[in-house]
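In keeping with the milestone schedule agreed at the kick-off meeting, the structural modelling team has produced records for the first pair of proteins. Each record is given below as a sequence line and a structure-token line. The laboratory manager (R.T.) confirmed that both were archived under the project's standard naming scheme.
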Amino acid sequence: MAFGDTEVQGEDVLSEINMIPLIDVMLVLLIVFIITVPVINHAVRLDLPQAAAQRTPDTPQVVRVSVDAQGGYHWNEQAVSDEALRARLGQAAAGDSQPELHIRGDRSVRYERVAQVLAQAQSAGLRRIAFVTDPKAGSAAMP
């Protein structure tokens, strides 16, 4: 007699468990739980006091670096040299909260001068850099 071969009074007895009814029962229970869980509300109802204080948004400091038509740099409308600009960018990046750097370039200035400001700001470690343009001037030239 081999393992798994079981005979009881001439009938073969199946020695395996039939899994299909077990799976059917589990699926029905799963569906019941999926339907009933959202209906059950476990929240405790409280009458909370209303606060009148509003949170003040943390607006970052904005630094405007302008490049005029002759290629000169201006830090917040104040003329600075190339070395002074590099030093100020380093100081701004070293602070606890980094400012937003807005780069404004004159239409007739060489792109090289604007790219130098961008490269210096990135090497100083500033992460928030934006270019400022005049949308009204650009739309007049387009057909």
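The second protein of the pair:
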Amino acid sequence: MIRVVLPAHLRTLARVSGTVELAVAEPITQRSVLDTLEAAYPMLRGTIRDAVTQERRPFIRFFACGQDLSDDPLDDPLPPEVIQGKEPFRVIGAMAGG
């Protein structure tokens, strides 16, 4: 099982509390995790990625094992710790301001 941590506003929208656990088909990549997440929680479609282009929305970042994966290719395998369920895949709402 892949564990996904969502920001509070997306947990509210998806009506979940805490970490989401997903059975993701291999290969386990950012794309496959996000596809599975959106299939399980259709109300999240278009909130994390653009519904048409499938590109990451501005101010959304992806992290795993303390690394920012936001600019990595979507089809690169996730770290083994995420695949093994030891570490979560984190969706973070980035902050901006001045």
